[in-house]
Design goal:
Elements (H helix, E strand, L loop, with lengths): L1 E4 L1 H14 L5 E8 L3 E9 L15 H11 L5 E10 L7 H6 L5 E8 L2 E12 L4 E10 L1
Parallel strand pairs: 1-3, 1-7, 4-5
Antiparallel strand pairs: 2-3, 2-4, 5-6, 6-7
Length: 141
């Protein structure tokens, strides 16, 4: 599946990553999904992690529920999440893998010395014996 991401929303994700550096930023990807995920909004949220925010992020579950309620009855839904990786590649960590939910896109932007660099999208693949990430293509629109 492809993640269609408006350039304007990538600019917003980059700005969020710059502002929170050297800590991880995080947010929601809102849009639609059918044969591809179409992001219409990247909405930032707070990283509520109380420890090691440089290498970990946590989204308040109440924010996820609030947004889910807000989107009910619309054609939009949460199609994924984004976060930054300060000074490391845009590749999911073991922590990311252990805390990911299937069915969602995970967009990760690497930030080197405060400047956003690479961006990649991932989806969790689960089998009976393992959980791993598979990269999804990002189509900038």
């Amino acid at each position: 599946m492809t993640v269609a991401l408006p350039r304007s929303e990538l600019v917003r994700i980059h700005a969020h990553a710059r502002e929170t550096y050297p800590e991880e930023c995080c947010g929601f990807l809102i849009g639609t999904q059918d044969l591809r995920r179409v992001v219409v909004e990247a909405r930032r949220t707070a990283n509520v992690r109380s420890d090691d925010r440089r290498t970990r992020y946590t989204i308040d579950p109440r924010e996820t529920l609030r947004l889910d309620r807000e989107l009910r009855g619309t054609e939009r839904e949460i199609v994924g999440f984004y976060h930054s990786h300060p000074d490391v590649p845009a590749v999911p960590s073991a922590f990311d893998r252990d805390h990911a939910w299937p069915g969602y896109a995970y967009v990760i932007v690497s930030v080197s010395h405060g400047e956003p660099k690479d961006v990649h999208a991932w989806i969790l693949v689960e089998t009976e014996t393992e959980r791993s990430f598979m990269e999804e293509a990002i189509e900038l629109v």
